[in-house]
Amino acid sequence: MRVIAASVFCLILTKIATAQGAEDSRSSHLQAFNAEDKSCYAVNRAYENTHNSGRYSFTISELQDDGHLRPYMEVRAIDNVAYSRIENGVWDEDKRLPIRTPLDAHSGLPVFTSCKELGNSQTEEGLAFHYSAYWHRYKWSAAIEIWISKTSGKFIKTISRYDQGAGEMPFPVAIQIMDYDRAHAMKPIVPDACLTLDLDTPPAICIDLTSPSPITAH
Asked: Of 12, 42, 86, 168, whose CB count within 10 A is highest?
């Protein structure tokens, strides 16, 4: 049954990649890399579909011991630029890499290993494939759970439990929630292009007209 499910999932990804190829040319066309963990083929293709989308946004929150989420970071990927802010601070912008592969650029080792299909799961975004895996990037590593949309073939949500109690985030457990509504991925106002100042708050700070409300957890 797992082999059949994986085959169906790959077929879904192929159809999605064909339908969306005109929007963004950064996809790998579902080509596997030689260094990949073979158990993670479906996860890797969904990972590429996610990060090579033309426009999307996501939030990262700390999963606290009591089960509550503390919003931490918001990111908006728009064409060739990635905008980010931490805890409702000012926006920063950086060049978005032309392609993000499932191999770590520093070591050449696979980002995802030991992938296991946990079955189907109902999420707020619809029915999803649920996987567990091990994640590695740069000097960080974590046990990770991944939910992949059966409709879009992209990541919906991940929960990362970092080794040593911390990782790329300053807390041990992080939840990343994706948002593919293009209307939500509006270009923010970064400090150098700030047009509106709050002069009543010393020092004067930019007011981002595209984000009237603070970062909130989904």
From this structure: 42
- Joined together, the tokens standing for residue 33 give 């890399």
With residue 90 as reference, give the H or E element that holds it: none
Which H/E stretch holds residue 156? Answer: strand 155-162
Task: Please state, in angstroms and rounded to a whole number, the distance separating the CA atoms of residues 192 and 94.
Answer: 13
C-alpha–C-alpha distance, residues 55 and 24, integer Å: 9
Q: Beta partners for 86? A: 73
What are the b/e assignments for 176-191, b being 16+ CB within 10 Å?
bbbbbeeeebbebbbe
Q: Considering only CA atoms, which of 74, 73, 60, 71 is closest in space to residue 158?
A: 60
pLDDT tens digits, one per residue of 96-112: 875 567 788 788 889 99
